[in-house]
Amino acid sequence: MCGRMNISDHEGVQWLLRSIGLMASPVQAPKFNVAPTRQLDVVNMNNGKPELTSMSWGVSMKTKGKKGQEIIRRVSNARDDKVWTSYLWRYLIPEQRVLIPVNGFYEWKRENKKLVAAYHITPAAGPAMFFAGIYKKPKDEETNAEVTIVTTAANKAMSEVHDRMPVILTSDNAALAWIQENDRDSLDELIQPADNNALVFTQVSEYVNKSTHEGIQCIEPV
To answer: Residue 163's domain is classified under what CATH number?
Structure first.
């Protein structure tokens, strides 16, 4: 899964966007500890060309609360084994896919259900990477489009920390295919765990555990 992200290196993100033909975007303030419901810059297709737009992290879904009342829940991750069958995703994935550029993400290792370490996980081959995303269009002009991250089973390296990981599109061709293809078989080929050598794992302090904490302290190695 993915519950927190680092999007603090603007130049690194610009490098990634240029790799798929996007011009530089306005400078963004560094965000070291991005949590669900925050706004994300994502890439979708508009008139056949990649375009940068803003979406809210977490797709809204109606569910029942403990007392039977209807509540709205934000779903920040979409499992790969449910994207074609779940009523929440199956109507979105055929045409509403985006790229989510990030510098890194965080995951927490647990032993016997107890949190023992936090890790900042970054790409081995550059300053930023694309996650595969699915989005939901806004209902009206006063609401935002909402986006979720597609996750898959962890590769061997990631399994040392967690059993799932974001779908990472590790080449320009794969990134563009994710937002251009319409064939399910082609898309399924992209929904795979990254290679074992694709990521770097850095243990960080408990400071990042709290979603309201910000700043470079979040990514400082222990």
So the answer is: 3.90.1680.10
